[in-house]
Design goal:
It is built from four helices and 33 strands. With 515 residues, the protein is mainly beta. Strand 10 (108-113) and strand 11 form a beta hairpin.
Length: 515
Amino acid sequence: PDFQFLHPALSPDGKTLYFASNMPGGQGKMDIWKVERKDGAWGTPENLGPGVNTAGNEGFPFVHESNVLFYSSNGRDTSGHFDIFGYNLMGGAASFNLGAPFNSTGDDLGFILDSEGTKGFFASDREGGYGRDDIYSFEAPDGIDGVEVEMPIEVIIVVADSSTKDFIEGAEVRIFEQSEDGFLEGDNLYDVDLVPNPDAPNELVLKLIRKDMDALDTPVKTTLSNGEVYTEMYPSRKYLILASKEDYDDGELLFTPSNMGEDGKVMLYLSKPACINLKGNIAVDESGNPLEDVTVTIINNCDNTAQIVKADENGQFTFCIPPDCDFSITAEKRGYETAVSEFSTEDLEPGSELTANITMTSFGGPVDDADEDMDGFDGPMEEGAVIVLQNIYYDFGKSAIRAGAARELDALATLMRKYPSMEIELIAHTDSRGSDEFNQSLSLARAESAKDYLTRNGVQKDRITAFGYGESQLRNECEDGVECSDEDHAFNRRTEVRITKIDVPIKVEYRVKKP
């Protein structure tokens, strides 16, 4: 073309691209433009208008976390040629000149600022440099006029006994910040595991399982004699606070500092265990003899936390589990089929006992060392094994993954990094609304969106194949001409994950349950 596109700069949230161009429709020569990314696609470029652009030249945009756009212009009142200006993208003010020492009688360009608003860089051909345009760094400990940066505040976390209200000394405190979709960083707080489905003996379910407190690598703060620890938090952000202490149940609190009291303190209470004692016995079905050294995993389906123990020489194990929850229990030992069962503690009183008798069946042959290659899978992965992922839902007519739904893709990415030989197919489906041609195109865009997400999270793209099936495989009666609720239509909008290879080729089906 007869015009140029220069100086691309992405907004902090990754949704808007700013750039300089002399394309038609501008205010003068080179202008600042923006284009927004919606539903996985870039829209139409928009000129930022006279609040930023002039009859001269504007370029070198940079968007700071404070929603201030920094750029250079030679079309406004300047100290020389190009000066650095700021403009509040939230509106309400005109562009402002940063003045000295950022601007000089020469060209001053390419301003960038760190998230705290106190350090940065820019380029200039001012006197005293080594060549034409040199790079300069700066520090502004008091900030920059026109830039309002959110500063952290001091928060005092107080851990106390829920019954006596006495302060607890020596409690370990960990703090996690929530991501934009309301979840915590999966690699920090969760392990990804494949758990046998008790309803289908040849089926595995991908689960995010909360790590034990001791397994978390987040820095630990320890409470003082007054039960306090001190930290800094940003007022507008949300945090999960975890606390643990021997002889107490772990405690947690979702917390936003803006809701904190005037004293700057937040209370987190720990309780003494009030649990049900689960006693288990493991035996071999052929003989009834006890089986030792069995790995027993119990998953609390209320919060997806897991406990793991080894059965003793008498095939026995114990767990302390809470009331009013459903549980899955898995027993694993090389050379034996995995045993799975489910039970509930509903209507059981704390302090009561529950017995679990588990019978395991031998494969009937020697244990092959090759089985150990599938770390995490106990026993062979046979043809027809099934791995189930929850659906990745989309809003109607869109290819962007719904906020929060990416958490399942995070788990899948973690699993694929763990097993480098794993190859998958991503198969996207739409509901029946819209034309067949539109839905076919939309479903492929959705599958490609999921593929892009995985590749951005460390999975090689040649291990992923994307398919779009449109509305050809509806899972209910909501076809063309049938009136259905939004929930029923949403059940058809999904992306299925079919594993085609993992160490050895296996056939994998996708199974779902209606929400």
